[in-house]
Each structure stands twice: as C-alpha cells, then as structure tokens.
Design a protein that fits this description.
alpha+beta; Cytidine Deaminase, domain 2; 2 domains; six-stranded mixed β-sheet; 9 strands; 21% helix
Length: 179
Amino acid sequence: MDLSGIVISRGSAKDIFCYCISARSNRLDTENPVIIALVFSENYMNIEDELYQSVVGFIESRYPIGWGGAAAVRTESGKILISVAPETKNDALALCMEVGALLEAHKLNEAVTHSICVCREDEHSELMILSPCGVCQERLVHWGGKVKAAVSSAENTLVFKTIRELMPYHWSIVNGEQL
C-alpha cells in the first residue's frame, strides 16, 4: 500500500489526540477514514487525578509546614476551583473547606461535576482524603445526583462516588424528585 499521498489531520482534546488518516482529501474525512487511532500522551490524567494533583499542589504551596488542608471542585467547563477553611478564633464560625469553591462556582454560574477534600496533620504526614460531610453533600445536591465526590477509604485511595450513591435515601423523594 502506497502511503505517500496520505494526509494526517489531528484534532485534540487536552492531552488526548485523535489522528484520522485519509487518502481521499486534504481535510479530515470522518465518513471514510482509512485508519483511526487514539494516542494517549504520557501526561494524560483523568479528571479525578487532575483534581487530586491540583489540591495537593495547592496544599504543599499554601501550607509548606504544619497542618494543611484544602478542597477543590471541578466545574462543567473544566475550571478547577480551590478553597480552604477559614481560620477563626471561634469554632462556631468555622466552615468546611469546600464552601469557598462551591460559592465561587455559584458566583460563576457554573455547574460542579467533582469535589474533593484533602488534609494532613503536618508536612511529614500522609495526605488523607476526606468524604464530604452531610451538609456539604447537601450543598452538592444543588447540581444533581451525578456530581462525584472523593470519599475516605481504609486504604486512603482515590475513590469517587456520586452524590446519589452517597445519599441513596435522599429526602427529595418526598417531593416527587429523585437524585
């Protein structure tokens, strides 16, 4: 097979590249491709990994020594919003780490698709993934039952569950709605 006249067109979506080789024209031929291949970049990260790496990088930068914790949410447009719990002298005024990022998503009028909270005791401690508390789960319900939240696990591995999975008996059912 003579490949000398083949044109390679490339369309990209972040780090995933799709090559469509067409021997029939000088443009992308989606109807009659000869070969279609997906090539994943070595730097490819899924949404969950990208969110985790973003929040960990922030913690390491913001809290180089001592305790550190932050939350991150990803919006439908792909923005990653990071927030911290405010330091207060009165614990009654404390807010969860996610609140700032969730409020920012509301301000931007963007739907949240993923959420994660991570903390550590000090710079020598293991980073721990924290499940959203019940109040923060309710805050995430605003964007529906498909929102994914990172959850704590005995192995401290990166596991995401939908809000629907975290709240299978959500009270919204009494209003005729289901997450």
